[in-house]
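Re: folding output
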Amino acid sequence: MKEEKRIKIYADENINIAIVEGLKRRGVESWSALEKGKRGLSDEEQLSYALKERVTIFTHDDDFLSMAMDSGIEHYGIIYVHQQHLSIGECIRRLKAIVETTSSEEMHNRIMFL
């Protein structure tokens, strides 16, 4: 897959920063809400930012799922994992695999579960 078509990961404020740092160390373009000064924004504002930046949101917050499914709001992908479901290392491994095998176009308006 061409580099410019790769997914970029945007971690909402509830995601452990260690996941973002681990992704960066493995060559995945990623950043957190904290890094971008987006803490405290509403879920709608987070989705709007992610759409503008064409990034996939990684979250523990199931409100994003409800918003995307109920309202049909456009997004560049939502990847959801339950907060207690996977270790930090497993999240990093699975996210890296998704980035390496799924294009940004394939993630458009798609929801994935880790």
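--- second protein (sequence, then structure) ---
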Amino acid sequence: MTSLRFAKAAADDMAILLAANVSPRDIANSFHCHYSTVYRIKEKIEEFGEARPASASLMGRPKKITAAALEGLTDWLFDNEGDKQLAYLDEMVIFLQEEYDIDVSTSTVSRALKSKNISLKVVSFIPIMRRF
């Protein structure tokens, strides 16, 4: 069995021909594939309503910090007057524990902030003495 798949456009074209009551063997001959491929596409159309349905499941482990908790954390960081804008990661962990009852590590908080393009780095300008 090969792992080759038709492009979505080709599968949609097959679906249009199936809707026009063209024989699956004729469709297979025009697309240079086996007729069982056309029957599988026909079964997917009957079951899902489209020739190539999207994947129903998400891959990977669910995120510990939900979207609402991440939004609350960013509001907590940026709404206050400068004292919490320079908060440490361990303070953010405590905030998430107290407010949202989420037990996470500092690296998890760091990754979540990175996904929102928030950096915890402080930029400082150091004057350079030049000698002429």
